[in-house]
UniProtKB/TrEMBL annotation:
InterPro entries found in the cross-reference section: Creatin/AminoP/Spt16_N (IPR029149), Creatinase/aminopeptidase-like (IPR036005), Creatinase_N (IPR000587), Pept_M24 (IPR000994), Pept_M24_MAP (IPR001714), Peptidase_M24B (IPR050659), Peptidase_M24B_aminopep-P_CS (IPR001131)
UniProt organism field: Dictyobacter alpinus
Claim: Iron is one of the keywords in the record: no
Protein name: Xaa-Pro dipeptidase
Keyword Chaperone (UniProt): no
Length: 366
């Protein structure tokens, strides 16, 4: 996190009439402090006009001090964060403290309210400028994302040479994890999806012991995490020619929807407009009822971030230059099969740069 962005956050805090802001959402705390730890409860931060405090526990005191230079690392006695914030408020004269209403548990809120009685009042915010700042990737973030995507591409190239009929979905899931770590990833950015044959009709199918067969569609959704940043890619493959002509027809339509969306995307579109680019292609092909999720989402420190490419996205939120989003239309036909194809793209003023480089061919000849 640059000091320029910290100053933007401080200016926003002042504009809201606050003295300080308490950030508990793990990735937002990481984004602000530079300490990339998204373990729930490992660390939170308080920012005021003059102070930037990182609260953590003894398990993380050394790494936090090393990876968050410029931050005052505080280890609350007995891990009582509420009392620590009350002490800081008394010391620095904070009377109004904001917090993220979607990230602070009710129990923690009650503890903080009780500790601050007579010292400060609490003010909830559903959205903060930190969320908006995270939309646009800074140069160092973009480089980390590109590296995570490159590891994902290399892992997929390996899978295409390695995968064989008779392997289980679990075998493939394990090989994805192993290869990504071998290539330098922290690990996977989410639990990989390997959905073969009829399991492909479930967008978030959990890999099981089903053996992969020739001629069936195999949807593989995976991503590497590199220095905290998440890649996300889906490819649908087939070992040999598809068993049914319709499989290829459906796949080609989904691929056309993805490509149409990528070609039409640019900064200034709303998430709804972006979603419609892909959705209209599937609707025109008579597949609308089988497209049951949104077209894309932001990626960064979280695998699912804003901005969203969705029918439910706010109309007044536009895609900014420098955001990185997925484009991932899919078709899921219960009792038969499904297919999805997904890239990560960098949004630019007049288009996008496709960051994912893996080929989109359906068939792997064996």
């Amino acid at each position: 996190m640059s000091q320029e962005s910290i100053q933007q956050f401080r200016a926003w805090i002042t504009e809201q009439g606050l003295d300080a802001f308490y950030v508990t959402q793990p990735q937002s705390a990481s984004y602000l402090s530079g300490w990339l730890n998204d373990e729930e409860g490992a660390g939170s931060v308080v920012v005021s006009a003059q102070q930037q405090v990182l609260l953590t526990n003894p398990l993380y005191s050394e790494v936090a001090a090393r990876e968050a230079p410029g931050w005052n690392v505080v280890i609350p006695t007995g891990r009582n964060y509420a009392n620590a914030i009350a002490s800081l408020a008394q010391e620095h004269g904070w009377k109004k403290i904001g917090f993220e209403s979607v990230a602070l548990s009710y129990a923690s809120y009650e503890q903080l309210q009780q500790a601050g009685e007579g010292i400060f009042t609490l003010h909830p915010f559903e959205e903060t400028i930190v969320n908006t700042l995270r939309y646009v990737k800074q140069p160092y973030e973009l480089e980390l994302l590109k590296h995570a995507i490159a590891i994902t591409d290399a892992t997929f190239a390996h899978l295409c040479q390695w995968i064989q009929p008779g392997m289980t979905e679990k075998d493939v899931e394990w090989e994805i994890s192993r290869k990504m770590v071998e290539l330098g990833a922290d690990g996977t950015s989410f639990s990989s999806i390997v959905a073969s044959g009829p399991n492909g009709s479930m967008p978030h199918a959990i890999p099981g012991q089903r053996q992969i067969q020739r001629g069936e569609l195999i949807t593989i959704d995976m991503g590497a995490r590199y220095k905290g940043y998440c890649a996300d890619m889906t490819r649908t493959i087939c070992l040999g020619e598809p068993a049914e002509p319709r499989m290829k027809e459906v796949y080609e339509t989904v691929l056309r929807a993805m490509k149409t969306c990528e070609q039409g995307l640019h900064a200034g579109l709303s998430g709804r407009e972006a979603d419609a680019l892909a959705r209209n292609v599937l609707a025109e092909a008579g597949l609308a009822e089988y497209y049951i999720h949104s077209t894309g989402h932001g990626v960064g420190l979280e695998i699912h971030e804003n901005p969203a490419l969705s029918q439910r996205a706010p109309e007044d939120v536009k895609l900014p230059v420098g955001s990185v989003v997925t484009v991932e239309p899919g078709v899921y036909i219960p009792g038969w099969t499904g297919t999805r194809v997904e890239d990560c793209v960098l949004v630019k003023e007049d288009g996008v740069e496709v960051l994912t480089q893996s080929p989109t061919e359906l068939v792997i000849q064996r």
